What we know:
The complex is a heterodimer of chains A (102) and B (743).
Chain A: H1 12-17, H2 25-34, E1 43-49, E2 53-58, E3 68-69, H3 77-93
Antiparallel strand pairs in A: 1-2, 2-3
Chain B: E1 4-8, E2 12-13, E3 18-25, E4 30-40, E5 51-64, E6 75-80, E7 88-97, E8 106-113, E9 118-124, E10 130-136, E11 139-144, E12 154-162, E13 167-174, E14 185-190, E15 202-206, E16 209-210, E17 218-219, E18 224-233, H1 238-242, E19 259-262, E20 271-274, E21 281-285, E22 289-292, E23 313-316, E24 328-333, E25 341-349, E26 352-360, E27 371-375, H2 377-383, H3 388-391, H4 395-399, E28 404-405, H5 407-414, E29 434-436, H6 452-465, E30 470-474, H7 475-481, E31 491-494, E32 500-501, H8 503-514, E33 518-521, E34 529-533, E35 540-543, E36 570-571, H9 580-583, E37 586-600, E38 620-621, E39 632-638, E40 650-656, E41 663-664, E42 687-692, E43 698-701, H10 719-731
Parallel strand pairs in B: 2-26, 27-30, 27-31, 31-33, 32-34, 33-43
Antiparallel strand pairs in B: 1-3, 3-24, 4-5, 4-25, 6-15, 6-21, 7-12, 7-18, 8-9, 8-15, 9-10, 10-11, 12-13, 13-14, 16-17, 18-19, 18-23, 19-20, 20-21, 22-23, 25-26, 29-35, 34-35, 34-36, 37-38, 37-39, 37-40, 37-41, 40-42, 42-43
Amino acid sequence: MYQVQASDAALLKEFRDIPAQQRSLELNRLLNRLRMESVFGKHMIVATLPGKEWAIGKTGQKRGVPMQMGSARYTSLKDAQWALLRIRWEVHSGQPWPVELG
Amino acid sequence: MFEIVGYSSQWSVAPGQDISVMVSCDGVDSYCADLVRIHCGDTSPGAPGLKETTLARNIVGPIKGRKQYTEVGSFAKIELDREVEGRSFSWLMGIMATTPQKGERQFVFGRWNEAQRRGYGLFIDEAGYLEWMAGDAEGVRSVRASRALVCRQWYRVGVHINVENGVMTLRQDPVAPLHALNSASSAQGQWPGLDVDAVGVGVLSLGACPSGNATPRMTQHFNGRIDSLILLRGAFDDEALEQLARAPDLRQFVSPPLIEFDFSQDLSSDRIHDRAGFGLSGRLFNLPTRAVTGILWDGSAMDWTRKPEHYAAIHFHDDALEDAEWEADFSFMLPRDLKSGLYAIKLYSGDTEHRIPLFVRPGFDQPKAKIAFLASTTTFLAYSNSHYRLDEAGMEMKSGMFAVVNPWDAYLGEHRELGLSVYDTHSDGYGVFYSSRRRPIFSVNLQCRTWTLNGDTHFIDWLDKLGFDYDLITDEMLHEDGPEALAPYKVIMTGAHPEYWTTAMWDTMVAYQSAGGRLMYMGGNGFYWRCSYDREKPWVMELRRNESGARYWETMPGEGYHSTTGEYGGLWRRLGRAPQGLVGVGTVATGFDASSYYRRTDASHDERAAFIFEGVDDEIIGDFGSLGGGAAGDEIDRADFSLGTPRHALVVARSEGHTRYYNVVPEETLYHHPAINGEESDSCYADLVFYECLRGGAVFATGSITWGASLSWNGYDNNVSRITANVLKRFSSDEPFSFPSTE
């Protein structure tokens, strides 16, 4: 399985700046890896108001346990995706989120 | 959301029919109910929005809201209706635990009341050890095995109770010691003065025991299989235990068993039978799985009807559900003059609303329209309450996007008592084979994801908007009524995703086409899986995901034949009936990140196809839509002459430009290789197909789930809508199609 490299940090801003269908193969490989994780203890985007507001939640350690919701609320799906990307990067790469990405 | 949730006694209903409505409320003191006609339910960005017409307000007065309880988990009950005299007995059975280390106690069988701690029973403790318990007024005694059960391994288990001297013996012999960590065990305990019922009159239960409380009624659900249940007089020895390695007809005990349940009998039902002298019977609750391999299965049979003794196991699950058993809040008779269409009982209180759909077929004495829209009620039942967004680890990566948990996903994730879909796995990892209509079903909700019923309302909306006169029919009608369900109609129009078909449904469609009917297949991934309905419980469907197909679980070896009908399950393609032979196209790929468009082919200029493109000069068709931005997407089908696309079929347009998150389905790739994605595959596209049939019939197929979500674009003024209207008008006309000359 592909292991995230520290150098993959250079791909992160592409996620924000390039439309999904034009992304590089390297970024897609990184995203595939960041999306391959257990369903338990998984951070996910939650539509708190479908089409209008999103948050980040975390699944429990077994089926049936309500998600734990983060306090932040996002008024665009893009912002929620960016926030989740940061979490997934830090979980799977062991690297800090690049400072320049804010 | 979901402060009010409910379901009706029937989905497919006729005018004048009575229905019962079951409702549960959470934080709602009372609610009202209207009868509404649904024109569209999809409120996704770019979709037409919720459109409905109220036909009757307050069909019943304000109803007091109440929370209703759902008992989940399968089990069996046997009525032991007579005393068994004697002071020494042995129980024998085969057991395979699928979550022995669940961390909770599990009840395998016995006559036990948990609140009273009375009776006797075989349990698995929190650490996965078998434990026999006997309880009376003096307390509870138990004997525990010395080795834990190994997951998914069969054991021959024997328990001897000697009431005379108070000795209890518990023994487990693994059938395959090498794979079961050599976990044989024989344990014994002695309690002088033991005075418990070794057998006793009352209800014997398997898979769960009575809690002694109002809710839940049953507790300590067992995940796993039980093969045979035998009661002998006296102690058992090695030879007696080894009889479990023999078919029931070949077993030889020192004295005839007092009780011998053979679960291979009446396997298509919810009944279980005792072949020994008592002739007892029992019943299964909440759909434990049958036609699954038992302790004797050795691979010499794959069909349970050929060697039923190899399938004498019942698989119990702690999350199985057949019937929510909610009490009806009210009954309602549909107006006798109600026009066929999609309706709903709209329940509401303040801002909270819930719509329970009703698929109203035409009245028996009502004149029929020329057009029938076929609601995919079997597919809706298959999807029912899906959890794959939360339960399936690979789903997010497959989708090419970060998953979004919508309110309905979160609700179903927390409310596991509403049961599973045939897309899910049980908590022990085994596939879900059955789906029942007798519970709230979220796949028929509106104002949610553009999928199943909500997605199909795009067609209802379009038909209503353009003023087409049509009847609404259902898969259930095809299954139950056969050819007479379709015979009155010039054209049948499917929805976006008619994926699941019983043999009767398929044969009905073939008969209709053979008689000159016209079929507009308006979706993708249709005609894909064989399913069946229970012959005694028409609200229960069954599916076996054999061999191949896009699937999230697969049938275990030897378990490919349906319990309800004895048919071999799986893809229609693998049953010799590839969908290309029925509708010209069949599934080639799935992808959910973005949709694409079609490009007209040279064949689209054939004179035979002229009617399709009347008023359409565009070369690019459907580069718009509310589902992924294109008319070709989600799950797509293509023509394949080697699989049965008729030789004279015209592929009038083909999609292109799919992303690398579209992947060709497993059955299309005999060996896996790097180029199965939408960017690199040479076969990842949807085909728009037309061909004439015999006796004046014809077929038009879009090969795409997202086609319908493009119909309303730009105020319904677009080439997808135009093409669909052209085809529908021609297909509903009396003028027959001429089979093209082969001279």
